[in-house]
Design goal:
There is one protein chain. This protein folds into two domains: 127 residues, Enolase-like, N-terminal domain (Enolase-like, domain 1, 2-Layer Sandwich), CATH 3.30.390; 221 residues, Enolase-like C-terminal domain (TIM Barrel). The chain has 366 residues and is an alpha/beta fold. A seven-stranded parallel β-sheet has the order 5-6-7-8-9-10-11. The chain has a four-stranded antiparallel β-sheet with strand order 3-2-1-13. The protein has a two-stranded antiparallel ribbon with strand order 4-12.
Amino acid sequence: MKITGVELRRIAMPLVAPFRTSFGTETARDVLLVRVVTPDAEGWGECVAMSEPLYSPEYVDGAAEVIRRFLLPALPRTLDANAVGRALEPIKGHRMAKAALETAVLDAQLRASGESFGRFLGAARDRVPSGVSVGIMDSIPQLLDAVEGYLGEGYVRIKLKIEPGWDVEPVRAVRERFGDDILLQVDANAAYTLVDARQLAKLDDFGLLLIEQPLANDDFVQHAKLAKQLRTPICLDESIESVEHAAAAIALGSCSIVNIKPGRIGGYLEARRIHDLCRANGIAVWCGGMLETGLGRAANVALAALPGFTLPGDTSASRRYFATDITEPFELSDGHLAVPTGPGLGVAPIPALLDEVTTATEWITL
């Protein structure tokens, strides 16, 4: 089947509450959706880039421009997701934009063949355990109230965002309030340096699953040094942008756990390659999130059902971030989310809801 055109659609999704990390605060998601159209099927991809280049060098306006000017002219016209990565490889970087386009092609391909994302990727389960990411709060009492609410909803793992000045005491407070039995981890989003090793080592007393991305994105060597000074396992997130990065981190001893975010690494085919590499090397993996709509969430849940994903991911229910999603909402059931079984992503935007949040559309004929 030939790809006849691509739609770039911008939507504005207000968050139910501000989400604060060490690099900034989000109150709404400015999302770029990519729709690939053929005579017999269409597919959707979601770009996880943020409005500003704070989490990564990519940002939404830039992603739209690079898709328009460079990726689409290089895109094979045949509906073959495996060919997309090879065709786009000469264009350096822009993995979030590439991931959105490749996902849309893969979704259309699987819808046409009647195969689900989970089956295609190799899912081994029909549901996945759901964790939740808790942003930096104005006070510890506010944090404790938020964690209590999420535990009440059934989330099986809590992740706390941390930064210098908001690390040991919030973690201590959560442990003292909710006990040692809850699965608890922290995420620094590269907010520390090796000079902070003693401060980070204080977190060893709290029995954390892991500390995520404590140091700079591009410093595998410093992470390897830090790993020798901590009992808490180090997980890399922003540092891992490809299977080559994962291999380097494993070889250097920079981490013992990897957070696989498909949108950050160029797509779900690369995510599966990283999963396979880590599994072969005894490295635990879990699926991270980027405040996706139901489209991105469906693909992440399918990925998280692969056998190497042994830790709960940030695959939260839709209402964790959005009062109304653009697809049928994902709902928690006993702390888990069901893996969609329909063709492709197994979900699709609800036209009325999509139109309500759409801010711009652009149709590009190929």
